[in-house]
Amino acid sequence: xxxxxxxGGGLVQPGxxxxxxxxxxxxxxxxxxxxxFRQAPGRERERVSCITNSDRSxxxxxxxxxxxxxxxxxxxxxxxxxxxxxxxxxxxVYYCAADHSATCSGPFAFWGQGTQVTVxx
Length: 121
Known about the structure:
Number of helices: 0
Oligomer: single chain
Structural class: mainly beta
Radius of gyration: 13 Å
């Protein structure tokens, strides 16, 4: 059974940092591209980052570029999203999703349950 489980969310002050983890099981992570998405209340879900399976190319939304870093450790079946200089507008539920491809085009058929990130003073 293919599973993705996010962890590492929480409450942090503006300017702070968090590292999210996406722990996977039931499939060969080497073959999958992983995307990070977030959804804030009243807003559409947006893709904030992606890291491909093969060459580990990364993509970042303009809103997080220079602040967020995606990485992966296939030996640990885990993908990470390091988030620095957090802003209140980064608040939302963060999801990781898997796509059996070598690009960030999607459609990301497999999803985790999400982890809440709240940036507030």
